[in-house]
Design a protein that fits this description.
By secondary structure, the chain is an alpha+beta fold. The N terminus is likely disordered.
């Protein structure tokens, strides 16, 4: 096949003889050298032709194969090898030719030498770890590879590490993107100068070969591309082609890595237009090339693109056909007939969405755009390569190749232009792509490299119309998903909006394009072009208007919605990204006066777009009811540019504002949103589902508020400052639907609102007014003041971590605006307003983070409830802020009661907005305030303290912002406005406050109490008509007022609108017919605002005449009004503050206040309340009280539960009052009594119904981790540091056992040591007991209860029914008789010899247990089952050490080792010694006693043969038996090699229980003699030959003194002389000397050695005695521990304590003559050392001084761990793991979840946890900085021990800030590991299914 192809390809070149293929292969190098020589000649035409021919043949060999491989059959037929071989051959040829006959590697090296790279340019793909330094970056997209970052100096900079999302490239060395100070060492040198010039012949071959190679690649791509069929996604085929091309593209990529010299050659090749034309035109006679060109044209057409020459063919139909296809298909089909070729992707989508709904819109500027959208002409390889890259949806390899070339400047420009030229095509491909996410990332990977560079962006903008292209492409993209807007006038609306349900928006498909747009707008030069170009601005506003009014919500009034749409995510994201971010980008360039023009342009086109929008939706003056959209980007653009104009550009606001009518329209929709927010919070939208609440929250949430609610409120403030205040205020109350509530009457009827919602809507309306009037965010605050206010608001709600503050404070949302989160101002403001609270660590407590909390003076002066209300996403946060404020006042003694929100002074208003304060001085507002005060005083329904608070706040705002002189505006009032003038004379609040109102006319339902008093007025039903009849009574209708004002404004602007207005609106407000009949009544009021306030004071304080004007006593008050006493307090304080301010503002007010106070005012009797009303009020009150009571009870309950949980879960506290009377009860009780925590009954444990302790059994290897030095090992952070576990306790014990097993009899070995250092079983209890049958039924119920997750009932796991502690077994309590126990403890006066006899007899008696085991009682069954549990807790390999599997010796060893493990662990929990004394740290919770009984019971099943019983060897002299020992049998372990502690446990567990105290003491005494002898022997081996002979001599002299047996010198000399008989000391080779310590032994050091040798045994024995006999341990100093313990154990005669220097030998009490028994013991060793002197010595020196176990020591800075491990390869699979982890116990590196290292379905972490920790693993996840705990079959995330500078974790390294070790946390982790309390303290466990 290959040959045929070659022949076909070689057809057109007759001159060259065909070489057979093998020949070619042999002689590549020679051919290459020959060709290179030929080409080097001056006349090189022949050489060039020859090379061309060769290339043609070599390279074309692979093409047909590709085509064949594309069709399935051929691939099957050709087998695997065919295609690959030919391609490799071709690549080999290319490499040979490039190198020109030399070796390819040498060639690469040669080219690299000429690399003038001043740029790093390293390209990376997703998930790469890179760095970003904001201090050094010019562009915010700047990034550095780790190497450049660490080589540069960034100390003290604001940098972070991040995981690349889309890929990127290193900018080191590029001064356009970053400051040169940040360059690393390699890229600081401007190296171009000293690099030698490239020799011509080095790259000569490349220039010839590469064009053919790239052309070949392009042909390949053409061949491989098949138009995807309509229904089948074609990714499969594309990927297949790409796989085949892998080596070629990799080859190109390698070329780019050769450095600058090769890149410039490649640039030449890629951009050379002549080359491209010659090779690709498809005009030659070569059929292959022709076919390929045709495929290329087809591909172009099918993409909806024309090739410019084809224009002639299709041009004729363009005008007519163009329009029709566009209208139908959006822009997918381009022009004319091309539409038919289009893939049917678009129509498919249409079908699914329903064609009727969608109305496509034709773009107006068709001609210009058509060329942008549809014409592509490729003039160079680069252009066509990019075309195919896009067509194949940006394969990673191609992207990397194209990016690797970027350091070449010429290439960079060419490539950027090409990219822009293909921009529209990219968008089309992206829209059709099935993998749009991946593709988006790859696009941005490229574009961010191109557009972040300002110089380049400017150049492309000027030369290639970049801005036009981008805006047009975005517009086209959105056009494909427009639908008709249903806002306002559904039938006649002409407005279209994007459909948020479409994939384009739902999947954020548009973000790559938008992000590019934002990126280029961040460059000033580009942004200015945009702002100057009117056409672009118009188009852009057009684009923005697509989002205006999207995602419309219609309030559901009857049914709950069936399907809650989640489109709002898409809508908010789209507005933020596509509208707001570009807006912030543009705003960042409008900072100075010179940019006024730009603002004027934007504002002008914005208003035009808004006007078009109002016309399109047919809007007049009333918004449609029950609709709201949160998306008004046009309003927000307008608002933000206005704000900028006033704040930065000194523009006159009025010059850019539209007329009044437009302002009235502008305010409607933002106001509608504010009212809807109140409705949503009042649960009026509850039938719309949860998503509507989500929208309300998102609207104010920190990432959105800057671009949403803030501009809306600002726009409303602007409208309010320019419109008539009465109109504005009445509009507000009307929008909030509470107009009908504002009546003096006690009853009213609301036509638009249910009564239950009235209160919260009224609160909403007033709160909105307060926010509107007191917010100064855009009205005069400086940036730093804003930052401070935001920060204070967030901190007042809750203490915050540094990162959450950064997140919650709305920074300028455009990331490129240069305001950086974490900038200096942020830090300085933070330190000014907050204190840092470092995290506290309680063991068992939660892991806290470092928090910031407001300083006291902030609470005192800066707490601003208005800001808090504006910024809270959840209403509970407002409450939380108030609670914290209350707590502060109580604590600081400023105010004891329940305070009201404080009134805070505001920043002065910017002069442009002074008009806003007119709202506070308009009669409408005063009437509302008056009415509400009156209603509150009269206790009308639906008013709350919150309403009163807001009313007072508004009055206070009015007083603070009043015009200084009391004006008399009444004169200017025109006639028709008189309707409510008689309420108040003027519009100034200060004067209106004192105005008395006598009568008011109200409309009330006939049933109202007011009607009865005034029947005359009820005749006239129309309130307006009756006004003139009774001039005294005021009447007021807000609605009528608003209509009238509106009418006036409209008439003033001569609009024709009023004809439309009247009918439409009046109809809506007429009361529905079904309503009650309204009648008019006149009320007598006779109050003024001031008098109402004073009465309110009486009412609030509950006393008559409680208010007394303070200035009467202290005239100073009026002069110096700022009194701290008034700044914090409740309503009474607020009223006093207001009255004082009123008095200050005017003398008249002061006089009137005094007058009112003089008249003794009886409180107004609530005479207007009917019985029925009273009932409802009472009911309300009762409900309220009941609610409060309930809250109180719940709180109390919660605190009780919490305190119980704390005591129950606190693992370390010994003083726990959980009742537990095990065997330690007082003597008078005859039997221990247990409480069952399930059935609650108390009683003894009996054989039939045994009671058990709730226990947790777990395998533990903590003991095995002890080492003999105090310093913990360090975690390795470089290749050199490795940890070898040979010095751990477990390893040493293992070695010892295997050594013994080599030389001695197996069964005897298994009695000479303990196991359980690794995989030992640890038993712990919470101390609660239960009946075993109760427990079984409890387990049944758990098994049926499916909800319980986190533990597996099938494995016997459960939680203690009382304290919920985790447990997995029940340890039966032995029916014990305590009195008997006490008898056992009485000391007997028997001699030691007698006791030894008794012990021996008792051990020999088999069934000497009170319960005979043969009878199967419930108790014995339970004992057996718990023993089974204990065995199954650990793995088989940790139980079986015998050479003969299943031997009973194994079980025997295992059982006494369980006791050993528990004792040793308790010793560790006490800190490794018993100096502290006292009860055990586990307090009453130790279960050792019960455990001992269970073990003893089972041990006695295995009786030891009396002749093997070590007891006899210890206490009797035996005659020589060596003669009988046959050689074939191995000897027993010599007694001096036995582990004494193990012997102790064996002896005690072999005794019948309960044990007698004197027997115990006897055993201890006997064993101590053995131990002491071992110590002497070890000492003798440790010292040198001279020392030995000296001691031997001195001791021998004293041998005959009276207490020679208690003198260590004598004993030592005897041991030495005995052991010298054997060969133990003979092998004194040189290697021994190294081991022997060179120190001279003084008597003190010898004594210390002997004591240290014996101490571990004494500690374990004392613990055992404490548990068995309940005696307390004495506490002592460390140096006297030996003497105290030995006297406590009864080894020391009591009278002994007087002697001063304590000698350990005085504890000895030899049962048989010392010298005889010692010589017997030594002879055993001598007979062993005859043959094995080496081993004999090793076995004698036992290392018994183990230090406490520790986890590995971690480095200070997390980065050191991360840099080493995140790139480290796994030793098993040699790949870099995706989730690397490291074991903190032993330092092993593992793959978390890595399938590569899975063994028998166990992943590596789980496997390691079993091998290293017997089921407990502690792993640090390198990529997340968190620690994960594996315990058995469960795992949990523990938290992180690395915190940043602010005391916070950074899970998953998302923030990438430097992290430092937190020693306290690590200590807590280590503590939990040692104390085995992971299960109890960590709550969130889940099963891992062996997958970690």
């Amino acid at each position: 096949m290959a040959a045929a192809a070659a022949a076909a390809g070689g057809g057109p070149q007759p001159p060259q003889p065909e070489l057979p293929a093998p020949g070619l292969a042999l002689d590549k190098a020679a051919t290459a050298a020959h060709l290179k020589a030929a080409l080097s000649r001056p006349d090189n035409r022949a050489g060039a032709e020859e090379l061309q021919a060769l290339l043609e043949r070599v390279l074309s060999a692979e093409r047909p194969l590709a085509a064949a491989a594309d069709s399935e059959e051929a691939a099957a037929a050709g087998g695997g090898g065919g295609p690959g071989a030919a391609e490799e051959e071709a690549l080999e040829w290319c490499k040979c030719l490039l190198a020109g006959g030399g070796g390819y590697d040498e060639f690469c090296a040669a080219v690299r030498a000429y690399d003038p790279a001043a740029l790093c340019g390293l390209v990376w793909t997703a998930n790469f770890v890179a760095y970003r330094c904001r201090t050094c970056g010019i562009s915010p997209c700047m990034s550095l590879c780790a190497e450049c970052f660490h080589q540069g100096d960034h100390t003290g900079h604001d940098f972070n590490m991040f995981r690349s999302q889309a890929g990127g490239a290193c900018d080191c060395g590029d001064s356009n993107v970053m400051r040169e100070s940040g360059f690393c060492k390699r890229h600081q040198i401007k190296s171009s100068s000293n690099i030698p010039c490239v020799p011509k012949d080095l790259l000569m071959m490349s220039e010839f070969v590469l064009p053919r190679f790239i052309f070949c690649l392009i042909q390949y791509l053409r061949e491989g591309y098949n138009e995807p069929a309509a229904d089948v996604p074609s990714e499969k085929d594309l990927n297949k082609v790409l796989q085949l091309l892998e080596p070629q593209i990799s080859f190109l990529e390698d070329l780019t890595k050769m450095g600058g010299a090769m890149r410039s050659v490649l640039t030449q090749v890629l951009t050379n237009q002549q080359n491209y034309k010659d090779l690709t035109s498809g005009l030659g006679e070569n059929s292959c090339a022709k076919k390929s060109h045709e495929k290329y044209l087809i591909a172009l057409k099918s993409s909806g693109l024309t090739y410019p020459e084809d224009k002639l063919v299709y041009g004729i139909q363009e005008p007519s056909a163009g329009t029709s296809t566009l209208a139908v298909q959006g822009f997918a089909g381009a022009t004319g007939t091309l539409g038919q070729l289009d893939s049917s992707d678009e129509e498919d989508q249409d079908g699914s969405q329903g064609l009727g709904k969608r109305k496509r819109v034709k773009l107006s500027s068709s001609t210009k755009d058509q060329s942008i959208m549809d014409v592509l002409k490729h003039k160079s390889f680069l252009e066509e390569l990019l075309f195919w890259t896009i067509k194949y949806e940006f394969p990673q390899k191609m992207v990397t190749f194209l990016l690797n070339m970027l350091p070449d400047q010429e290439y960079k420009v060419a490539f950027t232009k090409t990219f822009v030229q293909h921009y529209a095509f990219i968008m089309k491909t992206l829209k059709k792509s099935h993998e749009s996410d991946t593709m988006s990332n790859r696009i941005v990977h490229i574009s961010v490299q191109l557009f972040s560079n300002e110089e380049l962006a400017r150049q492309v903008t000027e030369e290639c119309q970049l801005l036009d292209i981008m805006v047009t492409v975005l517009l086209y993209m959105m056009e494909s998903c427009l639908i008709k807007s249903e806002l306002q006038d559904e039938e006649n609306s002409l407005h279209v909006v994007v459909n948020c349900g479409e994939a384009l928006l739902k999947n954020n498909t548009y973000w790559p394009l938008v992000s590019d747009f934002i990126n280029i707008l961040s460059h000033q030069s580009v942004a200015k072009r945009f702002l100057e170009d009117h056409g672009l601005l118009v188009t852009w506003m057009n684009f923005v208007s697509f989002f205006q009014g999207m995602n419309l919500n219609k309030r559901e009034l009857n049914e709950h919605v069936e399907f809650e749409s989640q489109t709002y995510y898409a809508a908010f994201a789209a507005e933020l990204e596509a509208c707001a971010q570009p807006m912030w980008g543009l705003l960042s360039h409008c900072k100075v006066r010179e940019t006024q023009e730009y603002t004027k342009n934007v504002v002008r086109y914005c208003i035009e777009a808004l006007q078009d929008w109002f016309d399109a939706i047919n809007f007049v003056d009333e918004p449609a009811p029950n609709q709201v959209t949160f998306h008004l980007p046009l309003h927000r653009y307008y608002a933000m540019f206005l704000s900028k104009a006033v704040k930065c550009q000194e523009l006159d606001l009025d010059s850019v504002l539209p007329d009044q009518e437009m302002l009235m329209k502008l305010m409607i929709h933002p106001l509608q949103i504010q009212a809807s927010l109140a409705e949503i919070h009042s649960n009026m939208w509850v039938r719309n589902g949860l998503q509507i609440k989500g929208q309300a929250m998102t609207y104010v949430q920190s990432h959105f508020c800057n671009s949403m609610i803030d501009p809306d409120i600002y726009l409303l403030q602007v409208c309010a400052s320019r419109l008539d205040p009465d109109y504005f205020i009445s509009s507000v109350f009307e929008r909030f639907k509470v107009v009908d509530l504002l009546t003096m009457a006690s009853q009213h009827q609301n036509t638009v609102l249910d009564a239950e919602h009235e209160r919260s809507m009224l609160e909403g309306a007033l709160t909105f007014l307060v926010i509107l009037l007191s917010l100064r965010l855009h009205l005069g605050m400086s940036d730093d003041e804003i930052l401070r206010a935001e920060m204070v608001a967030q901190l007042c709600m809750n203490d915050r971590t540094h990162s959450s503050l950064l997140d919650l404070i709305p920074e300028n949302p455009n990331p490129k605006s240069g305001i950086i989160p974490g900038s200096y101002s942020f830090e300085s403001v933070l330190s000014a307003v907050a204190d840092f609270k470092a995290p506290v660590f309680e063991p068992g407590g939660s892991m806290q983070q470092g928090m910031y909390t407001p300083k006291a003076e902030v609470w005192d002066q800066e707490f601003d409830p208005v800001m808090v209300i504006l910024r809270t996403v959840y209403r509970r946060d407002v409450q939380s802020a108030m609670d914290r404020y209350t707590a502060f006042l109580k604590q600081s003694g400023k105010f004891p009661g329940n305070p009201w929100p404080p009134y805070k002074k505001r920043t002065p208003l910017h002069p442009s907005y002074k008009g806003l304060m007119r709202l506070l001085h308009c009669k409408t507002l005063h009437i509302v305030l008056f009415t509400l005060l009156y209603k509150i005083l009269m206790d009308h329904q639906n008013l709350s303290e919150h309403v009163l608070c807001m009313v007072l706040y508004l009055i206070e705002l009015g007083l603070e912002n009043s015009a200084d002189e009391e004006s008399d505006e009444e004169a200017s009032v025109c006639g028709p406005e008189r309707c409510h003038d008689s309420w108040f004379p003027g519009s100034n609040l200060v004067s209106n406050m004192r105005h008395f109102i006598n009568y008011v006319r109200v409309r009330v339902p006939e049933t109202a109490p007011e009607v009865k008093r005034d029947s005359s007025a009820s005749t006239s039903s129309d309130s307006l008509g009756s006004l003139h009849n009774s001039g005294t009574a005021q009447v007021f209708s807000l609605v009528a007022e608003r209509r009238k004002k509106f009418q006036e404004i409209i008439n003033r602007s001569n609009s024709e609108a009023n004809q439309v207005v009247r009918p439409k609106t009046s109809s809506k407000w007429s009361a529905p017919g079904s309503a009650l009949q309204l009648t008019t009544a006149i009320l007598e009021i006779k109050e003024s605002i001031l008098s109402l306030l004073i009465k309110l004071h009486h009412k609030l304080s509950g006393k008559q005449n409680s208010y007394y004007p303070p200035w009467l006593d202290d005239i100073e008050i009026l002069i110096q009004p700022e009194i701290p006493k008034y700044s914090h307090g409740d309503g009474i304080t607020a009223v006093e503050r207001i009255l004082l301010k009123a008095a200050l503002q005017s003398r008249m007010n002061k006089r009137i206040i005094e007058e009112i106070c003089r008249k003794v005012t009886p409180p107004v009797p609530p005479k207007k309340i009917t019985a029925a009303e009273k009932k409802t009020l009472d009911k309300e009150e009762r409900r309220q009280k009941a609610r409060e009571r309930q809250q109180k009870l719940l709180a109390e309950f919660a605190s009780r539960q919490k305190s119980f949980m704390e005591t129950a879960m606190d693992v370390d506290s010994p003083e726990n009052d959980i009742p537990m009377e095990i065997a330690t009860a007082e003597p008078q009780v005859s039997e221990a009594v247990y409480d069952c925590v399930i059935c609650g009954q108390s009683g003894p444990s009996s054989e039939d119904r045994p009671t058990g302790l709730v226990v947790l059994l777990q395998a533990s290897s903590v003991l095995g981790q002890c080492r003999d030095n105090v310093e913990p090992k360090k975690l390795p952070i470089s290749e050199e540091e490795q940890i070898y576990p040979w010095d751990t306790c477990a390893a040493v014990h293992d070695v010892r056992l295997s050594l013994l097993q080599r030389y001695f009899k197996d069964s005897s070995c298994l009695l000479a040591v303990s196991i359980g250092w690794e995989g030992g079983v640890y038993v712990q209890t919470c101390g609660h007991t239960l009946h075993i049958d109760c427990h079984k039924s409890y387990m049944e119920s758990l098994r049926n209860d499916q909800v319980l997750q986190g533990f597996s009932v099938d494995k016997g796991e459960f939680t203690c029914p009382l304290c919920r502690q985790f447990a997995n077994s029940v340890l039966p309590c032995y029916p014990g008789n305590n009195v008997e126990n006490n008898l056992w403890q009485r000391p007997s006066n028997k001699s030691i010899q007698d006791l030894i006899k008794e012990v021996e007899e008792l051990q020999g008696r088999p069934g000497a247990f009170p319960v005979s085991i043969s009878s199967e009682t419930n108790l014995s069954k339970e004992m057996e089952s718990v023993m089974k549990d204990i065995k199954n807790t650990t793995q088989k390999k940790y139980r079986d050490y015998s050479k003969t599997p299943g031997s009973p010796d194994n079980d025997f060893l295992f059982m006494y080792s369980v006791a050993r493990t528990n004792l040793e662990l308790e010793l560790i929990h006490r800190g490794g010694n018993l100096c502290s004394g006292g009860a055990s740290t586990a307090g009453k919770r130790s279960c050792l006693n019960q455990l001992f009984l269970v073990l003893a019971l089972h041990m006695r099943l295995y009786s030891i043969d009396s002749e093997y019983n070590p007891w006899s060897k210890l206490t009797q002299l035996v005659e020589e038996m060596n003669s009988q020992l046959g050689n074939e049998e191995q000897p027993e372990v010599p007694i001096l090699y036995h582990d004494v502690t193990s012997l102790l446990l064996i002896q005690i567990l072999m005794m019948p229980q309960p044990l007698r105290k004197d027997h115990f003491t006897c055993i201890v005494k006997v064993l101590f003699t053995l131990l002491y002898t071992q110590a002497l022997a070890a000492l003798s081996v440790k010292c040198s030959e001279e020392d030995r002979s000296a001691w031997k001599h001195t001791g021998a002299l004293k041998k005959n003194t009276c207490d020679a047996e208690k003198s260590y010198e004598v004993l030592l000399s005897f041991v030495i002389s005995e052991l010298s008989k054997g060969k133990l000391y003979h092998e004194e080779g040189t290697q021994e000397c190294a081991m022997v310590s060179p120190i001279a032994w003084s008597p003190e050091s010898m004594e210390k050695y002997l004591q240290d040798f014996c101490l571990p045994f004494l500690r374990i024995t004392s613990l055992l005695q404490h548990h068995l006999f309940g005696e307390d341990l004495p506490s002592c100093q460390e140096e006297e521990e030996f003497s105290v313990l030995s006297s406590c154990l009864g080894l020391l005669p009591t009278f002994y304590q007087t002697e001063h220097p304590f000698i350990s030998a005085s504890c000895l009490d030899w049962p048989v003559p010392a010298f005889d028994i010692i010589s017997q013991w030594c002879s055993e060793i001598n007979s062993f050392t005859e043959r094995h002197a080496e081993q004999g010595k090793a076995l004698l020196i036992q290392e018994s001084r183990w230090k406490l176990p520790h986890l590995l020591q971690l480095p200070e800075n997390y980065n050191t761990i991360f840099q080493y491990y995140h790139r480290k390869t796994c030793s098993v699979c040699t790949k870099v793991p995706k989730d690397p982890a490291v074991c903190l116990v032993c330092g092993t590196f593992v793959c978390l979840k890595g399938l590569c290292c899975k063994q028998q379905s166990y992943c590596e972490c789980v496997l390691h946890s079993q091998n290293c920790g017997a089921g407990t693993g502690i792993f640090l996840l390198i990529n997340a900085s968190v620690i994960i705990i594996i315990r058995g079959h469960r795992f949990c995330l523990w938290g992180s021990v690395y915190l940043d500078a602010h005391g916070e974790e950074d899970r998953d390294l998302r923030r990438g800030k430097p992290l430092y070790i937190c020693k306290e946390r690590y200590k807590v982790l280590e503590q939990q590991w040692i104390s085995h309390t992971f299960d109890h303290i960590n709550k969130r466990w889940g099963p891992h299914y062996n997958g970690l």
